[in-house]
Amino acid sequence: MKPYLLKKIDLEPDTVSFFNGMADMPGSVLLDSGMIMEGLSRYSFISTDPFMTFTSRKDRVSIETRHGPRAGETSIKIGNPFNILNDLMKQYKMEGVECPVPFFGGAVGFFSYDMSRQLEKIPEKAADDIGVEDCWLGFYDVVAALDHVSGSVYLISTGQPEQDAVKKERRAAERLDWLENQIRKSIKINEKTETIKEISGGSSDYLQPAMISDFDKESYCRVVERAREYIAAGDIFQVNLSQRFSLPARDRPWDVYHRLRKINPAPMAAYINCGHLQVVSASPERFLRVTGDMVETRPIKGTRPRGKNPLEDSMLREELWNSEKDRAELVMIVDLERNDLGRVCVPGTVHVPELYRLEDFPTVFHLVSTVVGRLEGCGITELLKASFPGGSITGAPKIRAMEIIEELEPVRRGIYCGSIGYLGFNGDADLNIVIRTLLFTPERIYFQVGGGLTIDSHPESEYSETLDKAKALIKALLEAPG
């Protein structure tokens, strides 16, 4: 058979209606270009029912096979999860395969910030109170690709994990039909749901739940001052510090995602249903994109809230654009990212095509850079080992900044500041930085917000910046459903 089967279907790309009927199915994933930005976002990808899942906690990896000749088997491996994942990806490698869409099958999921402990020795001081996996990835053989620029919808099926040619072709055809059927059923469910919402008009007895943080304003300002002391002493140039909010579990996670998508559409958004937990992300930041042997990262440093009117908007944009502090902070992170990419790229190929770019989002403005390079014969897992976690959410120098984060933040970050995205069977990849993200557990909902600190940081301003970044998440959580 061909490396894959591809079918273009006669539907307009509608992310929400396509996925609505799958959102509650464990293993369902959506990588969503909720905000189309040239050079950053164009496609959304939908899949469900992975043929295998890969999870890790410290150096313990669990691989559960759900389809194919070894269906029902679970294997446990001990070792570096990145190395084990690399070996696993090689089994399904489809190098040199051309496809009209960038992702046609592979692993989708998250790497938590704490995966960095498999790469560097970081002190263990912060409380690990949630206990979420360090990594969760589903392996998908069939994908729906929504091209929001051309208005096209493609279904792609690889027939994985079957190895026999006849069985692989049969499975590819069956799974292609199966996913199309899931999408068409989902559209009907969505139409019915929207009608019910319109009739009901929402709930009138909605109660705002208690929301707590691991910091109050005073204690956050104290850790900002402590970070500034480390900077003054020469330990670091900058560091990213965050606070975590939580509230009792309520609402269907997909409904919250739908509200968040309306309030704060984002180019690197995602919804992941792991079964025992759900991840809702409206991230604006790309961590790594690999296309062939080219790699790109787009760090964000510098934030201002949107204004209440066009004049205030213009003033805040100009303030950010002219901020020496934010520009200096971004340059430091660009240098860090260049060094990280330089560990695995062809010497002389790492460069910065755009040092400063101001991007508008629904609730904030951001200052962004772009760093690119050409990989020197390495795959995505080697790239991750060289660059994870992203420098924009640690600080510089990276390792010392991470040690200080561990000291000053009272709880482990978990998925926050990790990465969500895909690792394609063809070697390509696209991963975000996990910010503006909600984690749903059976008991509680968690999210974190932070910002970069330098010697010029003002504690109260830094505290306010975290709240600016939290606005869209809080509104999505507390807005009356319906």
What's the name of the CATH homologous superfamily?
A: Anthranilate synthase
Task: From the alpha carbons, calculate the radius of gyration and give it in angstroms.
Answer: 22 Å
Q: Quickly count the domains.
A: 1
Strand content: 25-35%
Coarse morphology = globular
CATH class: Alpha Beta
**What is the share of helical residues?**
25-40%
How would you characterize this protein structure?
It is built from 10 helices and 24 strands. β9 (142-147) and β10 form a beta hairpin. Residues 195-208 have low confidence and may be disordered. It is of the alpha+beta class.
Question: Which short descriptors sum up this protein?
Answer:
482 residues; globular; Anthranilate synthase; 12-stranded antiparallel β-sheet; 24 strands; 31% helix; alpha+beta
Q: What's the layout of helices and strands?
A:
Blueprint: E1 5-9, H1 15-19, E2 29-32, E3 43-47, E4 52-57, E5 60-65, E6 74-78, H2 81-91, E7 106-111, E8 135-140, E9 142-147, E10 152-157, H3 165-200, E11 212-213, H4 217-232, E12 238-248, H5 253-263, E13 268-273, E14 278-283, E15 286-291, E16 294-297, E17 300-305, H6 310-321, H7 324-342, E18 351-360, E19 364-374, H8 380-387, E20 395-396, H9 398-408, E21 419-424, E22 429-432, E23 437-440, E24 444-453, H10 459-478
Antiparallel strand pairs: 1-10, 2-3, 2-13, 3-9, 4-5, 4-8, 5-6, 7-8, 7-21, 9-10, 11-12, 12-20, 12-24, 13-14, 14-23, 15-16, 15-22, 16-19, 17-19, 18-19, 21-22, 23-24
Helix pairs in contact: 2-8, 4-10, 5-10
